[in-house]
Design goal:
305 residues; alpha/beta; three-stranded parallel β-sheet; three-stranded antiparallel β-sheet; 6 strands
Length: 305
Amino acid sequence: MTNWPEYNESLRQRGDVTVWVDESVAHDWGVARTGKRGRPGTYSELAITACLELRTVFHLPLRQTQGFLRSLFRLMKLELDVPDFTTLSRRAGGLAPLPRARTEAPVSLDLVLDSTGLKVFGAGEWLETKHGKASRRRSWRKLHLGPDLETGQIECSELTTDEIGDPSAVPDLLDQIDEPVRRFIADGAYDGAATRTEIMQRFADVEIIIPPPKTAVPGPEAETNPTARDLDVLAIKAHGRMAWQKSTGYNHRARVETLMGRWKSVIGERLRSRTLDNQRTESRIGVSVPGKMTSLGRPTPERIS
């Protein structure tokens, strides 16, 4: 690693309270008067977002978040009111999607999609549902993430109920992408004509790297007019699946698995909110936190052997 001092300092800043509550937050804490009828709001969306981010970073319940911010403002000598826990809970479900934190916009993306389960109530429900054991109610949600391989930033995310399949979430995820996509990588769960058509209609000259299943066969026009999927099926048949993964770069998908593990270690494996709207806001806050942490500094590795 060639930038260890800078990266080491960025790791310290991840726990710095001033990173999460800076001067701009304090300046825009209240709602500007609009002159419209009715009682004006007290707290801006930025204030609610800052509270929820602080709660996520330091793993605090809503009541403790209120007390933590009150003491922080008192030490900072800021005369600002802090939303109570009921206000935070009520306003969370209506928050607008957060802008992505990034140092510079990428020219094109190497987009990787994957999903993981987040628990809602108790322990063990994810494994019980996954392995087919009897369960009285579904008590987990599915988090879909789409990071860029080059920057490590999460470019799109979506929280759905457990019955939503991975391919069904692709259109909503791609709606969040503004940049061109150079490569699209996903596991075999995304294989299918609908997913490939959706991606090719949105992005020109995109390379789609999705492994076909073991039972896949080439299409009827594979000899005269093969599709990209036909070429993948023929390449796997001729050289083996491992050789195909190495030649196409599919092995890079392991990075999203690492991201999932890091996300759960930093944010947690369980959603605290009870309603789906609040859970979606909680997941978006959870996605923005690693993005802001990454923007503070990343390691710069250099191969030495």
